[in-house]
Amino acid sequence: MSFDNIRYIFKKELRSFFNSPVAYIVIVVFLVILGWFFTSSLFLVNVATMRTVFEMTPFLLLFFAPAITMRLISEEKKSGTLELLLTKPVKEYEIVIGKFLAAWTLYFFALLPTLSYYITVSFLGSLDSGPVIGGYLGLLFVGAVFLGISVFGSSITENQVVAFIVSFLIVFILFMLDKILLYVPNTIASTLEYLSIDYHFSNIARGVIDTRDVIYYLSAVGFTLLLATAALQKRRW
Amino acid sequence: MSILVSNLTKFYGDAKAVDDISFEVHSGEILGFLGPNGAGKTTTMRMITCYLAPNAGSIKVEGKDIRTESVEVRRCVGYLPEQNPLYLDMNVLEYLEYTAQLQGVPRQSVPRRVREMVDVCALGEMKHKDLGQLSKGFRQRVGLAAAMIHDPKVLILDEPTSGLDPNQIVEIRSLIQDIGKQKTVVLSTHILSEVQATSNRVIIINRGKIVADGPIEELQRGLHGGEKITLEVNVPDAQPFTVVSVQVKSIPAIESVNLLEERDGVKKFNVGTSSGVDVRPELFKLCVQKGWTLLEMHREQTSLEDIFRQLTADPVK
Fold this sequence. Notes:
The complex is a heterodimer of chains A (237) and B (317).
Chain A: H1 3-19, H2 21-45, H3 51-79, H4 81-86, H5 92-111, H6 115-124, H7 129-155, H8 160-176, H9 186-195, H10 197-205, H11 211-233
Helix pairs in contact in A: 1-5, 2-3, 2-5, 3-5, 3-7, 3-8, 5-7, 5-11, 7-8, 7-10, 7-11, 10-11
Chain B: E1 3-12, E2 15-25, E3 30-34, H1 41-48, E4 56-61, E5 64-65, H2 70-76, E6 77-80, H3 92-102, H4 110-120, H5 136-148, E7 154-158, H6 166-180, E8 184-189, H7 192-198, E9 201-206, E10 209-215, H8 216-224, E11 228-234, H9 241-249, E12 254-263, E13 266-273, H10 280-290, E14 293-300, H11 304-312
Parallel strand pairs in B: 3-8, 3-9, 6-7, 7-8
Antiparallel strand pairs in B: 1-2, 1-4, 4-5, 9-10, 11-13, 11-14, 12-13
Helix pairs in contact in B: 3-4, 3-5
């Protein structure tokens, strides 16, 4: 594994996010929607909490993760630059990891301004910082899984719209898994619950960092990136 | 031996795109890869550059196998794909730098290599412009610069002049010839004059098979066995052509005589010869001896167009 190659690809992708309007649009729209949900309920409930941020962000990510990543690989497939990239001494997984990290970093920059909510709320009342730290950590994990899935969605097609819809569908199913538990037989309910993204997130968002949840997120991200790598290698056979 | 291709076969589904081809390219050679569209040129090049994997057969580039030492092969090959894809949102310098980094140019020599390539490909004025704003000729130069940025031993250029205007074509060709002095170059094209202008050797490929392989002059001679000479002579006393014909045929190497045009004493005809013998001195002496006035004599060469059409003509017609 060449960390240099990953770094070069990461830097290039991050630069093209911020050179185009994509990054700014994503960050601004994300913050506007999140900010509206956050402020509108804050004074209604009258409790010093950031729960709305942690409840709403995974929901917003359903749309934002596929939107950020849809062009990452599919555009290169369409314009033919993927051929340039793959005929350089670069491994497929280095490309996938570099692009994934760039998307994750963009997401990180979108989350960063929400720290101002934390500062505001902590002035208004006593805010328990444990769940906040856990919540942000959980959001980074959830984001990583959603973005990993969306990178995979982008790797299987040269059409950005198809990439968006496929990614959205997979992410949406994973998101809904623990909300349909009432309707499924008990035997598979626990499996579905374990696979659900929200279930693990709610654990971490309470401020409890359990290795089981961390392992779930890391393996989910690893698995999606593996699938994306396989999709790039498929051309050879 | 720079590139060694043996028994290469590639299927797309059931269709055979490349059918058991073998050839080799020596170091320092410029090889023209010629064929109609869809003949398998691009597929072969994509296999040499490790973009596609062959179904059967092997390729060695600079002694390294594309299956087992793929990364090493990619390190010593520079590739300009068909249509010259580029990141249109990057500027020239950014793009060349990115390419150099990914090609594994040592960090401290990246700026130097980028500068050199900007000079070689005359990109100085454009270096801060986005690739999307450049004209096609400049984009092609950027593509070439990127292909050469790591000073590769082997250059693979897939239709390097497609879509350029005649001036740009001449520029790119002379650039390729300059480069070809130190490197092995394989370039594909379906424009015949291009091969004549740049290459030492031609491989003609049709329906996935090699139909001709050799230096251009050899192909031109080889196809007809011999050459044709056209003469125009003024014969005194308006002798009939049959008399002339018999006397011309008395020269041993001449196999056929065809009349093309006749008015009064002026007769235009061509003669076909067996291979390897130049009969022009003999013909001249004959004219002098018989008192014919020689108005014109020239040797016709089979053009590459003719060879190409004969070799790649559709047999099902």
